[in-house]
Amino acid sequence: xxxxxxxxxxxxxxxxxxxxxxxxxxxxxxxxxxxxxxxxxxxxxxxxxxxxxxxxxxxxxxxxxxxxxxxxxxxxxxxxxxxxxxxxxxxxxxxxxxxxxxxx
Length: 104
Description:
The chain has 104 residues and is an all-alpha fold. It has one domain (2-101): PhyR, sigma-like (SL) domain (Butyryl-CoA Dehydrogenase, subunit A, domain 3, Up-down Bundle). It contains 5 helices and no strands. α1 (2-19) packs parallel to α5 (80-101) and α2 (30-49) packs across α5. The longest helix is centred in the C-terminal third of the chain and has 22 residues, at 80-101. The radius of gyration is 16 Å and the shape is elongated.
């Protein structure tokens, strides 16, 4: 899940840089940080819901359940190479969805 949050965080930062909006405050309170994490989480969940079910399942097994690629292959019946390709493809799709959705 860390990779997904990193993508979302970086897209937020890029969006602020492109639009020239107010820079992020230098000192962020705990409440501000919690709200930001919640917003990222909601955006991420919505983006994941837009992916094909097969990709959703593989990404959730990998990042939420922290399963190894080999284990995911055993569960889904795909080779470890196919699982790796689907993970990479899913992450690219997520990056594309997140960059188009709220930040364009």
